[in-house]
Amino acid sequence: MLALYIRDVKLGIRAGGGALVGVLFFLAVIAVAPFAIGPDANLLARIGPAMLWIGALLASLLGLDRLFQVDREDGSLDLLILGSSRHMLPLTVFVKCLAHWTASVLPLVVAAPVLGLLMNMSPLATFATALTLLAGTPAIVFIGAAGAAVAVSLPRGGLLVSVLVLPLVIPVLIFGVSASYAASTQPDPFLPPFLMLCALMLFFAVIGPLAAAVALKGASD
Amino acid sequence: MLALYIRDVKLGIRAGGGALVGVLFFLAVIAVAPFAIGPDANLLARIGPAMLWIGALLASLLGLDRLFQVDREDGSLDLLILGSSRHMLPLTVFVKCLAHWTASVLPLVVAAPVLGLLMNMSPLATFATALTLLAGTPAIVFIGAAGAAVAVSLPRGGLLVSVLVLPLVIPVLIFGVSASYAASTQPDPFLPPFLMLCALMLFFAVIGPLAAAVALKGASD
Amino acid sequence: MRLTADNLGGERGGEPVFDGVSFALAAGDSLVITGQNGSGKSTLLRVVAGLLPVAAGTVRLNDGGEDFPDVASACHYLGHQNAMKPALTVAENLDFRRDFLGHPLMTTEAALDAVGLDSVGALPFGYLSTGQRRRIALAGLLVSFRPVWLLDEPSAGLDLASERRLTALMQGHLAEGGMLIAATHLPLGLDDAKALVMPGGGSG
Amino acid sequence: MRLTADNLGGERGGEPVFDGVSFALAAGDSLVITGQNGSGKSTLLRVVAGLLPVAAGTVRLNDGGEDFPDVASACHYLGHQNAMKPALTVAENLDFRRDFLGHPLMTTEAALDAVGLDSVGALPFGYLSTGQRRRIALAGLLVSFRPVWLLDEPSAGLDLASERRLTALMQGHLAEGGMLIAATHLPLGLDDAKALVMPGGGSG
Amino acid sequence: MAETTISGRLTNLANPTRFLELVGRFLPWLAAIALLLTFAGLAMGFAAPEDYQQGSTVRIMYLHVPFAWISMFCYMLMAAAALGTLVWKHPLADVALKAAAPIGATFTALALATGSIWGRPMWGTWWVWDGRLTSVFVLFLMYLGILALTRALDDPQRSARAAAILTLVGVINIPIIKFSVEWWNTLHQPASVMRLDGPTIHPSLLWPLLVSAIGFTLIFFTLHLMAMRAEIWRRRVAVMRRMAAKRAENRAPA
Ligand code: HEM
Ligand SMILES: Nc1ncnc2c1ncn2[C@@H]1O[C@H](COP(=O)(O)OP(=O)(O)OP(=O)(O)O)[C@@H](O)[C@H]1O
Ligand SMILES: Nc1ncnc2c1ncn2[C@@H]1O[C@H](COP(=O)(O)OP(=O)(O)OP(=O)(O)O)[C@@H](O)[C@H]1O
Ligand SMILES: [Mg+2]
Ligand SMILES: [Mg+2]
Asked: Any chain E CB within 8 A of the CB of D19?
C-alpha cells in the first residue's frame, strides 16, 4: 500500500513539474480575481476565502476524472484489482485518493496562508481558511473518486457522474466557505460548520472508496 | 476539416464527463458567491458578471490539458500531423479548438443566463455577460491550445497547463468583465471593450493555433 | 495445487463469446490457447483471472494453501497492455510491482538480466521500444512469485533472441511446479503443453 | 515515382539510434526492415514519414506530381498504435479517415470486406479484440489512396487467415505501382522485397 | 557508426566552446565594471538632494527602477533567444533562454519587493491590485511558469521549443506593463525617464539613476553569462555520461 502511495505521488509530482506548480497555480487563480472584481481591497478581502476555496476545488477536480482512467488504459487497473485479494480494493482506492490529494491539493493548502496575505485577509481568516481546506478538500477527492470510477466503467457515464457528484460536492464547499467566514466575522460560531465539514469528510472517506471499489469491480472488461 | 470537427464534437459529447464537470464547477463557483459576499442582493448583482466570468474561465480550463494528449496516446496525432501537408496544421488545431469549445464550453455559455438569475442580476446584465462570454471564451480555448500543445508529452499536465495559460488570458478577462459592466451601468459605453474583446479573440485565434502547431511539430516522437 | 475449469462460459458486452470450456492443470502443466481473432482467447484468460465475471460453469484453484486461497490471488496476469507507467523508470516500475504484489522472488537486476535488458533500469519506461517494453513486462512476472501465469500473446513484438529467452523463462517456471496458460498466435516452444483451440471467431 | 533515402540518420532523445541508412524504391518495390528490439526500426519509419526530425542525410520523394509533393503527403503511416477512437464506431472511424485524408479509394464496406470484418461496422472500435483492431487499422489503409505505405509490425496480433489476407493486400498495393516499407519480426510473405537489417540493438 | 554523429555533436558544440573561452576571458572585467558602476550610482544617489515630496524614501528609486527595467529587459532578451531557437535553431539561444529565466524571476521579485516597500510610505499600503503592479505580478508568474515547464520536460530538445513558444506568446504582457499606467490611470508613477519627449525628471536625480541602472544591467549580464556557462557545462556532462553508458553497453552486448 505504501508502495502504491509513493508511486502515485511520484507520478503526480513528476508529471506536472513538481510541487511548485501547485503554488503557482494558486497564485494564478488568485491573480485573476482582482482583474474581474476590481481593485477594491475590502471586497477582495471579503471574497478571499471563497477564492481560495474555488482554487482548491478546481485543483482537486483537475485530473481527478483521470484517476482510474490512466490506470485502465495502461493495464495497471487489472494489477490493482487482482491485488485486491491481498489488499482490499476500497483501501487501494483510498490510498490512490490520498496520493492524488498529496500531489495536487496539499501544496495549495500549504500555500494558502501566503496567498491570504495577497488577498488582504486577516491572519485569523487566513488561518481558518487553510484549516477548512485541510479538512474539506479530501472529501472532494473521495467523492470525485467515486465519480471517476463510475465514469471508467460506463463508456458514456458523463451525465451520471455529475448527477452523482454534484449534490455531494456543493455541501462540502458551502460548509467549508461558511466555516472560513465564521472564523473572522464575530457573531457566527466557527465550530459547528467546521465540525460538520469534518464529519462530511470522514463520511465520504468511507463511502467514496467503497462506492468506487464496487464500480471498479464491475467496470473491468 | 469538417470531418475533424464533427468527430471531435462527437467524441466530446459521447465521452461525456467533460462538459458536465465544467457546468458542475461553474455552478459550484456561483453557489459560493452568496457565502463570500453575504446575502446582500445588491452587492451580489454587482459582482455577478465578475463571478460568471471567473467561473467560466476556470471551468474552461478543465479538460483543456487533454486536448492533444488523447490524440497522442492513441496515435491519431500522427495522422493529424501527416495530414498537415494537405490541411495546414494550424488550421487543424483551430478546428480542434472549435470542437472543444462547442462540446465543453458552449454549455457553460448557455448555462450562464440561468446562473445570472441566481446571482440576482438584471436581465440586461445577464444577457450582456452571456454575450461577452460567447465572444471571449473561444480566446481562452485558443490560447489554452498553445499551452496544451506545449505540455502534450506530460502525462498529467493539468495544473501546469493552467499555470501557463492563466497569465495569458488575463487581458481577455479584463475586457470581458468591463464590457459586461458597461452594459448595465449607463455612462460607460458597451461597444469599445466588447470590440476590444472580439479583437483579442481574433488575435488569439491566429496566435494560439500557430503556436500550438509549432509546439506539436516539435513534440512528436 | 490444481487449477480446474468446468464448463466455463464467458460473455462480452452481454453476448456469449465462448461456452463449455473445461480443463485441469496440475503443477508443471501448461495450456496453450489458439484460435482466430475475436474467438475469445483474451476473454477466457480474463474470466480465469476473475477480471471478467464467470457467465457459466466454474473455475477453481485447489490446494493453494493459505497464501493462495483463490485464483486471483495465485496468478500473474499479463494482458495486451504492459501495466507499467511510462513516466517512471523501469526499476521503479518493477520495484513497485514487487512491493505491491508481495511474495518477492528475484531482485530487479536479476529480472532485467533474465530478459536481457540489464542496462535500462534507470531509463523511463516510456523511452523503450515496443519489444523492450514487452520484455520489461515479462520481467515483471519474475520479481514476485505467483504459481499461475496467465499470458496473453506474450511474444508479441519480441525479436528472435527474446522469444527464445521467453521460452526458457516459461520452461523454468513450469519446472519449478508452476502452471501457465498462454493465448497466442505464434508457436511458443512449449512442447508438452496441452492445447485448446477456441472455436468460431467473431466475424473473422 | 521514386522514394530515396541517402545516408539517413535518426536519433531519439538526443541519442543517435541509427546512421548511414540508404535505400531507393521505385514503383512496385518494397523494403522489409528487420532487427533486434530497440535497433531503430520504428524510429526509421517515423523519420521517413517526417514524424521525427532527420538527424543526418536526406529522404526524398521524386516525381510525386502535384498531389504528392513530399513524403509526408504521399504516405500512410501505420504505427504500433492504431490511430482509431475507441468511442466511435468502426465505420465512423474509417469515414473520418477518408474524409480527412482525401483521395478516397474504397468504400468503408469494401475495406471492411477486404480485411474480413464486414459485420462490425456499427460496433464501437473499443469493443473489438486486439487482432480485430489491427485489421481495422489495416482497412484504414484502403479507404484513401497513398502511394507509399509505412507499416510498423503490421501483422502483430493477427491470426493465420488475416496474415494471409494482409500479404494479399500488400501485394495488390505493390502490383498497382505502390511502394511499401515494413518493419517486422515475422515473415510477411513478400518474396521479392528488398531487405534491410538494422545493426546493433539498444541493449538487447 | 555511432562515433561519427557523436563527434558531429561535439563540433556542434564547438561554437559554444568558443563562447566559453570568450566568457572566461571577459567575465572578470565585466563583473568588476558592473560592481564599480553600481556602487558609484548608489553613492551618487545618496549624495543627491532629497525629494521635496518623498523625503529620503526616494532613494529606493535607485534600486526599484533598475530592477523593474531589468525585469522587462530580461524578458525581451528571452523572447529574442526564443526567436533564435525557433527560427535559426542556434544551440546557444536555448541555453540563453533557460539561463535567463531564474535571473529574470529574481529581478522581478526584487522589483515587486522594493516597490511594495516604497508603496508602504507613499500609498499607505504594501500592495494594491492596480494595472501596473498586477501586470508585473503576472510577469513574475510567467517567469515561474517557464521555469516549471523547463523543469517538467527533461529532454533538452523538447523543452527548448516548448519554452521558446511560451516565451513568445507571453510577450504581449510587456506592452501591457509598459502602458498600464496610461491605460488605467492608477496609483503608480507614469513614465518619466523613457518618454518620447524627453525625461521629465530632475537631472540631479536622473544621473545617479542612469548610472546605477547601467551598473545593475551589467550585473545582470554577468549573472546571465555565468548561468549560461553553467548550463553548457551541465549539458556537456549529460552528453558525456550518455556516451560513456553507450560505450559500456557496446563493450558487453547481451
Ligand atoms: C510593488 C509595487 C511596484 C511595482 C510592481 C512597480 C513596477 C514598476 C515598473 C515595471 C517600472 C518600469 C516602468 C517603465 O519603464 O515604464 C517602474 C518604474 C517606476 N516606479 Fe514602480 N512599481 C511599484 C511601486 C512603486 C512605488 C510605490 C513608487 C513610488 C511612489 C514607484 C515609482 C516608480 C518610478 C518613479 C518609476 C520610474 C518611472 C519612469 O521613469 O519610467 N513604483 N515601477
Ligand atoms: N520515446 C522515446 N524516447 C526516447 N528514446 C526512445 C523512445 N522510443 C524509443 N527510444 C529508444 O530508441 C531506440 C530505438 O527504438 P525503436 O522503437 O526504433 O526500436 P525498434 O527497432 O522499433 O524496436 P522494437 O522491435 O522493439 O519495436 C531504443 O533504444 C529505444 O530505447
Ligand atoms: N471491451 C469489449 N466490449 C465488448 N465486446 C468485446 C470487448 N472486447 C472484446 N469484445 C468482443 O469479444 C469477442 C472476443 O474477444 P477477445 O478479445 O477475447 O478475442 P481474442 O480471441 O483475444 O482475439 P485476438 O486474437 O484478436 O486477441 C470479440 O468478438 C470482440 O468483439
Ligand atoms: Mg486477444
Ligand atoms: Mg518498433
From this structure: yes
